[in-house]
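During the no-cost extension, the postdoctoral fellow (Dr. R.K.) reprocessed legacy sequence entries with the updated structure-token encoder. One reprocessed record is reproduced below for audit purposes.
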Amino acid sequence: MKVVPRIGTERKEERRQQILEAAWRCAARSGFRDITVDDVCAEAELSKGAFYGYFAQKDDLLLALFDHDAQDLDQAMVELEVREPDGRERLRLFTQAVLARSDDPARVQVRADMWTRMLTEEEVRAAFRAIVQSRRQRLRAWIEEAVAAGELVDIPANAFASILLALSDGLLLHGRVDPGAFRWVNIRKALGFLLEGLEPVGSGAVKGSE
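Re-encoded structure tokens follow.
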């Protein structure tokens, strides 16, 4: 009996990453809805058998892409907590990091496709909800710290965290629907002024606001 060699854990993760990166490139060109498993396999230079070793169906790939993007942003938030003690500046840098994703058409398209799917599919909605809840909790903690340190006025932390998250998603979606509606550089400036307006009277200006 012929023994089929098993792929090591590290190699399996490399292949999965290879598929995800290929899917990002395909989504940037055509949008996730219009790409096929064949497209992704051709881009990744892997067989369909290899693809189905990681994903049961194309829908699973969308969730994986969304999770992949979420992990990148969550890691950025962890790094901000380590290097930036000023809570108000931390919030400003977070909004800039989110808006920087507007420069990546694949990420914007996947986010738009996720919103479309959330209207009808509970599994997708639940995945999105879990990520947003975790991110809201972290932002809320940042805001509470900034208020306690006198860096922000006494603002409802959970509500403001929800506003920042909704603004980020809404702007990306609006930018996708109507790319000429606004300039991202001005959006970044406006959000900087928004945070500056929440500064307690008598404290300094927002660091690095544009």
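The chain has nine helices and no strands. The chain has two domains: 8-56, 57-197. The remaining legacy entries will be reprocessed before the final report is submitted.
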